[in-house]
Design brief:
The protein has 205 residues and is α+β, with helices and mostly antiparallel strands. It contains two helices and ten strands.
């Protein structure tokens, strides 16, 4: 008696295809939610690090300008304005042999700005009614909210300036910026603190 063996091959049934597609969809949704959750958790940290980096560059530029402050083209003393959240001084910040007047200010609750006023005319004058250039160094400086100064001033002996101190007494300046894009969230604030001596008035000590 002769028997014939036939190999029967089956493909995936429609039901099996639907089940596989469903499971794959569930897996992709779970993966997508995990990525979104991870991004959400870490986005603040990434944004905070970016803003700290921007603020650091701005404050470092400020310190460079402070170190190079010098007598104005009209002979005015290098340091012109010293307040808790505003500093104004003369410095050749663009190395063009013409001294600019520069102000740094925590202008709003959290915005640190730089304003530049060029020298004009002969004899030299400085028109402080409107800056020739203005830059935003950071939008997230929390000093006012934290109740602390942005600028600190010290005399020849290292004593911090008082209400009766004159700009001509100052020989050393410290800048402090507390940066945080969202004060109520972690990882919390980051403090930038730099100091500089007034190099071009050192002979007056």
């Amino acid at each position: 008696m002769f028997h014939s063996n036939k190999n029967k091959q089956k493909g995936m049934t429609l039901v099996e295809m639907i089940i596989v597609t469903f499971l794959f969809s569930i897996l992709m949704i779970a993966l997508g939610n995990s990525v979104a959750s991870l991004y959400k958790v870490n986005s603040y940290t990434v944004s905070q690090a970016y803003q700290v980096s921007n603020a650091r560059k701005g404050v470092q530029a400020l310190i460079r300008d402070v170190r190079e402050m010098t007598f104005a083209d009209d002979g005015t003393f290098p340091l012109s304005r010293m307040e808790s959240h505003i500093i104004g001084f003369y410095s050749d910040i663009d190395r063009d042999n013409s001294v600019e007047y520069v102000e740094y200010e925590l202008a709003t609750t959290t915005r640190l700005v730089k304003r530049v006023y060029n020298a004009t005319g002969s004899p030299t004058t400085y028109n402080l009614s409107s800056p020739d250039e203005e830059y935003i160094l950071s939008e997230y400086v929390q000093n006012l909210i934290q109740g602390t100064s942005t600028f600190f001033y010290y005399d020849t002996n290292g004593n911090e300036a008082t209400a009766t101190s004159s700009v001509t007494d100052i020989r050393f300046i410290t800048v402090q910026a507390i940066v945080n894009i969202d004060p109520i969230r972690n990882p919390g604030q980051f403090m930038l603190r730099y100091s500089a001596a007034l190099r071009n008035v050192i002979d007056n000590i």
